[in-house]
Design a protein that fits this description.
The complex is a heterodimer of chains A (475) and B (199). Chain A is an alpha/beta fold. Chain A contains 16 helices and 19 strands. In chain A, strand 13 and strand 14 form a beta hairpin. Classes of the chains: A alpha/beta (475), B alpha/beta (199).
């Protein structure tokens, strides 16, 4: 059995998640939860001010400023780089800046070339690498699992704990495999796949588990597609989601600003190659999916598990056997203003949002641009294109994607969380309906009274053109 | 942190499943930089509705929330816990909670207790029939009591001990500071660092 760099000797075959976990155990005494070392701590303005306050009150420092990085994303405007109109939003951003200054934490502020959605920034700087533990006061931290790391969202008390100790006490989760056999059909994306998975498991199906996504369809995904899948692990309640690193992963990391170089690179890759689930390792649970059966997938309800094929229709609440699901469906249809039996393709939208930590990376913008190129956004539809980071925005402009979007009549904006969460000025008004590439269709998530259908970037672009939910094949 | 052992109070029935943290407190209410004052955003979308349970006179002054499964899923915002506490809740009972919300609640002394759906249904019926019914959430004996009924719940030993002693997690961890330092001295040199900035 293998011996890890931290001296852990395995006595049995282990899953990828167990290997990464074991390599980060500072203390494991059987009574308290394991104490895990944290390799990378990402900060943003919303969930950190009270944590820094806690440090100040206790007279503590940030233990490892060199493993900590901050950016501004949730409150930032996307129509300009300079003016945060709402004074409470501005105060929160200014508080982050002051805290980073006081405690010596690196920050990429609005206007900086590396500013952006925190989960886009980490990977693009090469700070997210295989075999790490990554945390952030944001539930979509699971995104970083795409590199074969254990990455999960934490609350503000835990943010303070990590700032002070660079560790977190954690009960060891169970393990689960989601095996996706075969290849995704043409026109079916990572987003369609993860929406389908959540519709099978429900919002709580992954609770207490670290999930490893594997199988041919997962191996065939690009790194950015893998990030989309891992990003939404939290939407079915999983503690974290990860994917074994492979040559694609190494190629993605190599050459980035904070990637190892020279002998360090060789040592790192040698370790990263060991990060695979052992052949005889056992998962506590496994879900098997046949990729060939998948097609573009959208949500009809008010949680990410309430989804259906784009080719399908709004389900009848009476068709749910479980009384809790039936009531949830009734509530969802009332909120969404939908009638059972309506074909999804006949649902008209007012807004299309392309962006977020789920689908705001360069490949997402390319996928949407390919569909919308030479076409026009339908009358009465507002399409917002919000790159996940300033760097993604710059790259997209080098490729001329901004022109494709603006010529189609879409709104090309600056980087940030934007309409994903209804905190900054980009919000739906009551009753407005959106096709959104973000991750949550909760009531009011994109603005009070707003109605959200979660979709892939290609479906978002096709929907903008059609004016109602549509796939590229429908145009 | 204040010690948490047992709490007795009246309870509000919230007959909904999947009450995510955006519903507990929408993002627009998360802009404060303090840990208090979040009660104004609690269940903001429903607070204008006179039929909403917390707007009914019968449930004024409740300190226990009894709700459906998957309560607190979604965003990691600890503000959801602060809002419930600021409003006056000491305990929440549901068949199942979102993981991050549950962790956050226990860091703040908000007792989150999982009971089977049948028990939650029975509690709903009981507090709807008699809103003045006193409900006890007893962490010491790990049981919920209401009227003649008693339901046992599971609660992690360590988390329970920590709550009952009112211990601060950071102080607990720092007792192992030497182990953290030893771990750090063995960390691989190629692991990424944010400083100095290479961007």
């Amino acid at each position: 059995m293998s011996r890890t760099p931290q001296g852990f000797e395995a006595s049995r075959p282990r899953t990828l998640a167990e290997k990464v976990w074991d390599d980060h155990v500072v203390r494991s005494d059987g009574e308290q939860p394991d104490l895990l070392y944290i390799d990378l701590h990402l900060l943003h303005e919303v969930t950190s001010p009270q944590a820094f306050d806690g440090l100040r009150q206790a007279g503590r420092k940030v233990r490892r400023t060199d493993l900590t990085i901050a950016t501004e994303d949730h409150n930032t405007p996307t129509d300009n780089l300079f003016t945060i109109a709402d004074p409470t939003s501005r105060k929160q951003i200014e508080t982050l800046r002051a805290n980073c200054e006081e405690f010596g934490v690196r920050i990429h502020s609005l206007g900086d070339a590396e500013q952006g959605v925190v989960h886009v920034v980490g990977p693009q700087l090469g700070l997210t690498q295989p075999g790490m533990t990554v945390v952030c006061g944001d539930s979509h931290t699971s995104t970083h699992g795409a590199f074969g790391s254990i990455a999960f969202g934490i609350g503000t008390s835990e943010v303070e704990h990590v700032l002070a100790t660079q560790t977190l006490p954690q009960a060891k989760p169970k393990t689960m495999a989601v095996t996706v056999n075969g290849s995704l059909p043409e026109g079916v994306s990572a987003k369609d796949l993860i929406l389908k998975i959540i519709s099978i498991t429900g919002t709580g199906g992954g609770k207490g588990h670290i999930v490893e996504y594997r199988g041919q369809a997962i191996e065939e995904l690009s790194m950015e597609g893998r990030m989309t899948v891992c990003n939404m692990s939290i939407e079915w309640g999983a503690k974290a989601g990860l994917i074994a690193p492979d040559e694609k992963t190494f190629a993605y990391v190599e050459g980035r600003a904070h990637a190892p170089t020279g002998e360090d690179w060789d040592a790192a890759v040698e370790y990263w190659r060991s990060l695979r689930t052992d052949e005889d390792a056992e998962f506590d649970r496994e879900i098997v999916i046949d990729a060939a059966e998948l097609s573009p997938f959208v949500t009809w309800g008010t949680n990410p598990g309430q989804g259906i094929e784009l080719a399908g229709a709004v389900p009848d609440p009476a068709s749910f056997d479980d009384p809790i699901e039936r009531t949830a469906a009734e509530n969802a249809l009332a909120y969404m203003g939908l009638e059972a039996g309506t074909p999804m393709r006949e649902v008209d939208v007012d807004v299309v949002f392309l962006g977020s930590c789920t689908n705001g990376r360069i490949e997402d913008l390319r996928a949407a641009a390919e569909v919308i190129k030479g076409r026009k956004v339908a009358d009465g539809v507002n399409m917002m294109v919000v790159p996940g980071s300033a760097r993604v925005r710059e790259q997209a402009m080098e490729e001329g994607l901004d022109k494709i979007f603006t010529e189609a009549g879409a709104d090309w904006r600056f980087a940030g969380c934007s309409m994903c969460l209804g905190m900054n000025p980009d919000q739906l008004t009551p009753g407005q309906r959106a096709a959104s590439t973000s991750n949550r269709n909760f009531e009011g998530r994109q603005g009070k009274g707003g109605r959200t259908h979660l979709v892939s970037p290609a479906v978002a672009a096709a929907t903008a053109v059609a004016g109602s939910l549509a796939g590229p094949a429908d145009l | 942190m204040e010690k948490v052992t047992t709490h007795t109070g009246t309870a509000a029935p919230l007959r909904r499943s999947n009450v995510d943290t955006d519903q507990i407190i929408p993002a627009v209410y998360l802009k404060r930089v303090t840990k208090t004052g979040f009660e104004d955003g609690l269940f903001a979308a429903w607070r204008d509705d006179p039929t909403f349970v917390l707007n009914q006179d019968a449930y004024r002054g409740v300190s226990i929330l009894v709700t459906g499964t998957e309560f607190g899923t979604g965003s990691s915002r600890e503000h959801a816990v602060w809002a419930l506490k600021d409003f006056g809740f000491k305990a929440v009972i549901a068949p199942r909670f979102g993981d991050i919300f549950r962790g956050n609640s226990l860091k703040n002394g908000l007792l989150t207790v999982e009971l089977p759906a049948e028990a939650v249904e029975a509690l709903w019926d009981a507090v709807e029939a008699d809103p003045s019914l006193e409900v006890t959430v007893d962490l010491v004996d790990r049981e919920v009591r209401a009227g003649e009924r008693t339901w046992a719940f599971e609660f992690d030993d360590f988390a329970r001990w920590r709550l009952m002693e009112g211990l601060d997690d950071v102080a607990l961890t720092l007792r192992d500071e030497d182990r953290i330092a030893a771990f750090e001295s063995n960390r691989e040199a190629w692991r990424p660092r944010t400083l100095p900035s290479a961007a």
